[in-house]
Amino acid sequence: MKTDINNHYLHYLEGFITENRRDNFLKVLANRTRHFTVAVEDIFQLHNTSAVMRSCEVFGIQELHVVEEKYGKTIDKEIAMGAQKWVDVQRYNTVDACIEKLKGEGYRIIATSPHDDSSLIEDFDISTPAALFFGTERNGLSENVLKQADGFLKIPMVGFTESLNISSSAAIVLYELSQRLRKSAIQWQFSEAEILEKRIDWAEKSIKDIDFVKSRYIPETGV
After folding, report:
1. 114-118 long-range contacts, CB within 8 A, separation 24+
2. At 178, which CATH number?
3. For 48-100, what is each residue's pLDDT tens digit?
4. 9, 217 Cβ separation under 8 angstroms
5. For residue 59, which of 50, 148, 174, 186 is within the disulfide window of CB 3.0 to 4.6 Å?
6. CA distance linking residue 121 with residue 139, whole number of Å
7. 25 is a domain residue
């Protein structure tokens, strides 16, 4: 019953957007996933968080988790290039709260780090959902994250430099893992219910006078 009501509401909303935008939503959602999710911990430079969000959007990762234990920030819209409309951002005051939520949702906590026991990106097990944690270039992830991690992941490097900027690291990791995921037999796609939910969300975000449009909606039940 709820699905029927939501479909009716979506049909109403799509009367206010172009067919091209509607079709683009369907195309993009066919490649969206929550099999992998990304978490960033206390990123001091705002543009780095925004750039990671953009990478999430480009490579089809739906959710970004931002821990703001030290630095309260907002997303830099210029760097994100509109990605903030299409990626779901969850914010946390502590890393413990973030990890607890992600573990409760069935994610492995994976610390991206040049740790001795790290799995190289090409060898990383993609079969089960994973939350990929990224820290700062200077300090990396906190000891708290490293202690609670279920595994470690690193990018192979052969130069003198031992680390990459967080935005570069995230882009490389997400590209490699998302490519492998889409070539696999793993059920990584959104469910029909998730697709319907995001179609409604994105349609609402695409309509300039959405409050007025919603006020004019007459539910299918006639109530």
Report:
1. 114/154, 114/157, 114/162, 114/163, 115/146, 115/152, 115/154, 117/152, 118/152, 118/153, 118/154
2. 3.40.1280.10
3. 788 899 999 999 999 999 987 665 555 555 545 567 889 999 989 899 999 99
4. yes
5. 174
6. 21
7. no
